[in-house]
Design goal:
Number of domains: 3
Strand content: 35-45%
Number of strands: 24
Shape: elongated
CATH topology of the largest domain: Jelly Rolls
Largest sheet: 5 strands, antiparallel
Radius of gyration: 35 Å
CATH architecture of the largest domain: Sandwich
Order of helices and strands: EEEEEEEEEEEEEEEEHHEEEEEEEE
CATH class of the largest domain: Mainly Beta
Number of helices: 2
Helix content: 10-25%
Structural class: mainly beta
Length: 422
C-alpha cells in the first residue's frame, strides 16, 4: 500500500520541507515516522510516495483508519501543514493452536488441554473434534467444549479427556496417536495431535513385587506350619557377635522399604514443584541517574521461567545530547535521545531465557549543541553557544518492562515460537 503526497512551494525562494508520519502507521513494522526532507523550487511542486505496510495484528480493528503527515518548512518554522489520509482496514482470520501436553499416559484414562488463540482481527467461531488416528485404538475421547467463540486477541483452553475402553493387566505399554481437528470458516481446517501411552494396570516392577510378596507369604506360612515353627522352641542361630538371621532379614527389609519411600517422596516433590510453576504477568521498573545513582539498571529473568517482552515504556529527562540505550544482554535493542524517548515494542516476539538480562544504559553528555551542529533539527531555532564554564547537568531515565513469565517445565509450559530470541 502506497500513499501519494504532493507538496507545493508558494514562496519566492527555494525551500526544504521536513516530513514526519503521524498516527498508527508510524509504529507499524516496515514503516518509518521520519520521511526525511524534500527540496522544492518556488512556484513548483514535488511528489513523494509513502509506503505503508499494513500489519496482520489482532489489535488492528477493521474499519477506517486516519493518519497524517506533518510538513514543516526549514526556512519558516511557523509554516506547518498536516494533510490527512484514510486507510480502509479489512477483516482477516487467523488462529494459533497448540496442545499443552504432547504426551499423556495412563492405564485407564488421561487428560490434556487444547490452547486456542484468535490472532485475527475479527470474531471467530471455532469447532473442535478429537478422534484416535487408528480405528482399532481402545480409546474414547471427550472434549469439554466442542464449540466456542473468541474475540480478536482472545485465548482459551479446552479440556480433553481420554478414556481407555480396553485396558490391559500386564504386558508392554502401547502408544496411540490422538488428533484434534479445529475448523473455523472461512479458514481452512487445522489439526494438532498428541500421543496417549496406554500402560498396563500392573507394570513389570509391580508384578515382580507381587510375586515376591506372595512367595514371602507362602514361605512364612510353610515355616510356621513346619516342625521348626509352631509350638516348638525356635533354634538359636544368634552368634556371639552380631544379630540373628531373622533380625538381619528384618533390618534389610526395613532399609529397602525406607529407600523406596524416600525415592517416591522425591519424585512426588519434583512433580509438585513442576506443577506449581504458572504463567505470570510481569511489570518491572528500571531507573538510572547519571549523577546520584548508577548509569545502568538491569533486570534478570527468574530461574525456571522465560520472559516474553511485550513493550518497554521509556521516559527520560536531561540535556538533549544524552542517549538512552535498551539492551538484552550485550545486544542493543534500541537507542534514542533523552528528548526523543519512545516506547519500544519488539517487531518480532522477544523471548529471554532464565538468567538473561534486560538493561537500560544512560550516556549523558554535558556539552550543549552548537548552532551549526549537523545533527541539530531544522524545525528548532538555533541555540546560543554554551560557555565553557557551564555546570554539568544530570540525566535520569525510567523504563517500565511489561511482559509475561512463562514456565520452562511443567504442565503450564509453552513452546517457544521459531522467531523467539533467547
Amino acid at each position: 500500500m502506497t500513499a501519494h503526497l504532493r507538496i507545493w512551494n508558494e514562496s519566492r525562494i527555494v525551500d526544504a520541507y521536513r516530513l514526519t508520519l503521524i498516527g498508527p502507521p508510524a509504529h507499524w513494522p516496515g514503516s518509518e515516522a521520519d520521511l526525511g526532507q524534500l527540496a522544492v523550487y518556488p512556484g513548483t511542486y514535488e511528489k513523494i510516495n509513502i509506503p505503508l505496510v499494513l500489519p496482520r495484528d489482532s489489535n488492528l480493528a477493521p474499519g477506517t483508519l486516519v493518519f497524517a503527515v506533518r510538513v514543516s518548512s526549514t526556512e519558516n518554522p511557523n509554516a506547518i501543514a498536516l494533510p490527512e489520509g484514510i486507510i480502509q482496514v479489512g477483516k482477516f482470520h487467523a488462529t494459533d493452536v497448540a496442545m499443552i501436553r504432547r504426551r499423556a499416559a495412563g492405564a485407564l484414562w488421561s487428560s490434556n488441554l487444547v490452547q486456542l488463540r484468535n490472532t485475527g482481527n475479527a470474531v471467530t467461531t471455532f469447532r473442535l473434534r478429537a478422534d484416535p488416528e487408528d480405528e482399532v485404538a481402545p480409546l474414547r475421547t471427550r472434549l469439554r467444549r466442542s464449540r466456542l467463540k473468541l474475540q480478536p486477541g482472545e485465548a482459551a483452553r479446552v479440556g480433553l479427556s481420554t478414556r481407555v475402553t480396553g485396558p490391559t493387566v500386564t504386558g508392554r505399554a502401547t502408544t496411540w496417536r490422538v488428533t484434534v481437528r479445529i475448523s473455523a470458516p472461512p479458514m481452512e481446517e487445522c489439526t494438532v495431535a498428541f500421543v496417549h501411552r496406554q500402560r498396563p494396570i500392573m507394570p513389570k516392577p509391580a508384578l515382580r513385587a507381587a510375586i515376591a510378596l506372595a512367595a514371602a507369604v507362602v514361605a512364612t506360612t510353610a515355616l510356621w506350619l513346619s516342625p521348626v515353627g509352631g509350638q516348638r522352641p525356635k533354634a538359636k542361630t544368634e552368634s556371639a557377635k552380631g544379630p540373628s538371621q531373622e533380625q538381619a532379614r528384618e533390618q534389610t527389609q526395613k532399609q529397602a522399604a525406607a529407600a523406596a519411600k524416600a525415592e517416591a517422596d522425591k519424585e512426588s516433590q519434583k512433580q509438585e514443584q513442576a506443577s506449581s510453576l504458572r504463567k505470570q504477568n510481569l511489570q518491572y521498573s528500571l531507573f538510572v541517574d547519571s549523577v546520584k545513582g548508577p548509569r545502568e539498571d538491569t533486570y534478570t529473568v527468574r530461574d525456571g521461567y522465560r520472559l516474553v517482552v511485550k513493550t518497554v515504556q521509556i521516559t527520560a529527562s536531561g540535556p538533549a545530547t544524552g542517549i538512552v540505550i535498551l539492551k538484552a544482554g550485550i545486544r542493543p535493542l534500541a537507542s534514542m535521545g533523552v528528548d526523543r524517548t519512545r516506547d519500544y515494542t519488539p517487531p518480532t516476539p522477544l523471548s529471554l531465557k532464565e538468567g538473561a538480562k534486560l538493561a537500560i544504559d544512560l550516556d549523558c553528555e554535558t556539552a550543549a549543541k552548537s548552532p551549526h551542529d549537523a545533527t541539530s533539527e531544522p524545525d528548532r531555532p538555533p541555540l546560543p553557544p554554551a560557555p565553557s564554564t557551564l555546570p554539568a547537568t544530570g540525566c535520569t531515565s525510567t523504563a517500565v518492562i511489561t511482559g509475561e513469565l512463562v514456565p520452562l517445565e511443567g504442565p503450564f509450559a509453552e513452546p517457544e515460537t521459531p522467531t523467539a530470541t533467547s
